[in-house]
Specification:
single chain, mainly alpha, Growth Hormone, Chain: A, about 0% strand
Length: about 450
């Protein structure tokens, strides 16, 4: 069993890192990924269940509401979940957040087990799946403390990708499980894995005393402009990833009803977006997160336009390939924007302080704590994008019969995000030495 609390943790010290820090960080990362992965599966399980609710005769817009609500609740929960590791310890909070996933798993089975379940009850029960959305914020806020600055892009990318793949696994596995055991199994299937994740966190993860912080002190980052600028950019990257990933099954069913048998292919989108996310972090470690983010937002706008063309031409092949490209670019953007956050807050914290001094070390630790708090707030605000995208598709289809209006709005937003990235982190970086040195 791993030591519950670690009082001395200096990941930026090369000797400390090589002497055992790397091994401890890797172990915590592995079990963090496992728990976070399950959080994503429960958070997004309704994206597949909604497609299977034909006997309830809900409209497409009503089904998009069922898929949207977990995104809305999960986004809101990310704010308190951000402060959980700093208040209670990363290991302790991972155990708690994993066990909470049993609630949506059981209630899903309750909802689909009764053919007379009313629509409002479906909405209420689907909303509890948002508990899984909060796990991401606590996991990322915790793992950022374990790794040195030079490795955070890759480590956070792997942690996030392992969680994001949960969207893909649920969309791949659930049709098979449902077809074999019935719709209720979509929730009950995950319970043994949830228990295993909680046990793994309990026995093999650690709490860091250096990560302890008062939530009131952490909330100070909410008053900084950088937090909100990055939150907007994260709406465009992660919000788009979770929104497009959960919307795809219903989009295929509603816009290409003759291709309903191909809904199972939806898992490829979040799988691609998840696997490519570490690439965004890796590129940012070498080229700078702002440069990668700027180019990526331009690519996202172009990909959204191609998806629009596929729908306009009613060409499933063009639509699907363009949609895969769109989700892949969201994955790269997830990695690059997350790499920017610790770089920005670290650079601001140590600006003007001599390297190697005690004051520098103190400022660096404060910058790491601020970065951890900012990660949670930014991920919470950014995740609301998943709600907006699903509601955008639902409203567009209800009003016009198609998703073109929504895609046009999304493309325009990506152009705005590209301009914001340039204005805040590239145009001015030369005149702000702390940001330039951080390779933001």
């Amino acid at each position: 069993m791993a030591k519950r609390w670690i009082s001395e943790w200096r990941p930026d010290d090369p000797d400390f890192w090589e002497a055992g820090g790397r091994r401890v960080a890797r172990r915590n990362l592995i079990f963090s990924i496992f728990a976070e992965h399950l959080g994503f599966t429960l958070w997004t399980v309704w994206s597949i269940v909604a497609v299977q609710l034909g006997t309830y005769e809900f409209s497409t817009d009503q089904l998009f509401w069922i898929v949207s609500l977990p995104n809305l609740v999960g986004s809101a929960l990310r704010i308190p979940y951000t402060f959980g590791p700093a208040r209670f310890g990363g290991r302790n909070f991972t155990v708690f957040s994993a066990l909470m996933l049993i609630i949506p798993a059981v209630l899903l089975a309750v909802a689909v087990g009764d053919p007379d379940t009313p629509y409002w009850m479906f909405l209420l029960i689907a909303a509890t799946a948002g508990l899984g959305g909060g796990n991401f914020a606590s996991s990322m806020a915790n793992i950022t403390h374990f790794y040195p600055q030079s490795r955070q892009g890759t480590a956070l990318g792997l942690n996030a990708a392992g969680g994001n793949i949960g969207v893909s696994s649920v969309q791949l596995v659930m049709p098979l499980v449902i077809g074999t055991f019935g719709l209720a199994a979509a929730g009950l299937f995950w319970i043994p894995f949830i228990v295993a994740a909680a046990a793994g966190a309990f026995f093999f993860m650690n709490n860091l005393t250096s990560a302890k912080a008062n939530p009131a002190d952490q909330l100070r980052v909410a008053g900084r402009a950088q937090t909100w600028i990055m939150a907007v950019l994260y709406i465009g990257t992660f919000g788009s990833f979770i929104g497009y990933s959960t919307a795809l099954p219903l989009l295929i069913k509603s816009q290409f009803p003759e291709q309903t048998s191909l809904v199972w292919l939806a898992f490829l989108g979040p799988l691609l977006g998840s696997l490519i996310r570490p690439v965004g972090g890796w590129l940012s470690d070498r080229l700078g997160g702002a440069r990668v983010t700027l180019v990526n937002f331009a690519a996202m706008a172009g990909a959204a336009a191609l998806v629009w063309q596929g729908l306009a031409q009613h060409g499933f092949a063009l639509f699907f390939v363009a949609y895969m490209l769109l989700v892949a670019t969201t994955g790269i953007g997830n990695g690059s924007t997350y790499r920017m956050i610790p770089a920005i807050f670290r650079a601001r914290a140590v600006a003007g302080i001599a390297l190697g001094t005690a004051a520098y070390d103190t400022a660096l630790a404060a910058g790491r704590r601020d970065s951890s708090a900012a990660v949670g707030i930014i991920s919470a605000i950014g995740a609301f994008g998943g709600f907006f995208i699903n509601r955008g598709f639902g409203s567009s289809i209800a009003a016009t019969g198609g998703a073109g209006a929504a895609l046009a709005a999304f493309a325009g937003f990506y152009v705005m995000c590209a301009l914001l990235t340039w204005a805040c982190y590239l145009r001015t970086a030369g005149s702000v030495p702390s940001l330039a040195a951080a390779r933001v």
